[in-house]
Design goal:
The chain has one domain (2-218). The protein is 83% helix and 0% strand. It has helices at 2-17, 20-38, 43-69, 71-74, 78-84, 89-119, 127-153, 158-185, 194-218. The mean pLDDT is 84.
């Protein structure tokens, strides 16, 4: 019950402010247009590194969203009021994680068609496999990102701390997502990239548990 209330709170804040999804989508569109005009490689060669460009774009997009994830709580020290409420702090973490995961999926849903339109992104296999991959990767990104954002909230250089810590931690996730996307785009069976899927599952589970269990300590002054 507490968790659903916290998720609804995040959605109400996003509906009022319209900050996260819109800013992430606008950035994605700008990057896609830049790529479409900047790269003139042959389609066969370009498609080889297009999965990497896609996930690098989503990595930077996630940073923009994460920097806004605690923006409402910073105003008038509302975060201290949230921590003093009779709510489990692990639930606060999970509420933030689920809400950001959905926001990131919404931004990707709006921009993936543009990758198809402007950059000729094609999937030889089933599209639902790629969608499941996005959901899994986004959960890993959200689990790590919300934990780091909570740490950065209590520091003066939080906006610098988030990308500095996030990029190294998410490097295995982005590499695994890129390798898996390349395999899916070529229509390869799961057995050809199940190692990378296991990495994504491991990051999702481990950091979700660590964030849930340690968010109380992370959120302290």
């Amino acid at each position: 019950m507490q968790l659903m209330t916290l998720v609804k709170k995040e959605f109400h804040q996003e509906i009022r402010a319209k900050e996260s999804v819109i800013s992430m989508t606008v950035f994605s569109v700008a990057v896609i247009l830049l790529f479409s005009f900047a790269f003139n490689a042959a389609p066969a060669e370009f498609n080889k590194f297009l999965p990497g460009l896609i996930w690098m774009t989503f990595l930077f997009v996630s940073v923009i969203g994460l920097l806004r994830s605690f923006s409402a709580e910073k105003e008038m020290d509302a975060y201290s009021a949230l921590l003093s409420s009779p709510v489990d702090r692990g639930s606060i973490y999970l509420g933030k994680l689920i809400a950001f995961w959905i926001f990131l999926l919404l931004a990707q849903g709006l921009t993936i068609p543009l990758f198809v339109l402007f950059l000729n992104f094609k999937i030889s296999g089933e599209w639902y496999v790629f969608i499941l991959l996005m959901m899994l990767t986004d959960w890993a990104i959200s689990g790590v990102g919300i934990m780091i954002s909570g740490m950065g909230l209590r520091t003066r250089m939080g906006e610098v701390l988030v990308p500095v810590l996030l990029f190294p931690l998410l490097s295995p996730v982005i590499i695994a997502a890129t390798k898996s996307t390349s395999a899916i785009a070529m229509g390869l069976p799961l057995s050809k990239f199940n190692f990378w899927i296991m990495i994504l599952i491991t990051f999702s589970v481990v950091f979700s548990l660590v964030g849930y269990l340690t968010f109380g300590a992370i959120s302290e002054e």
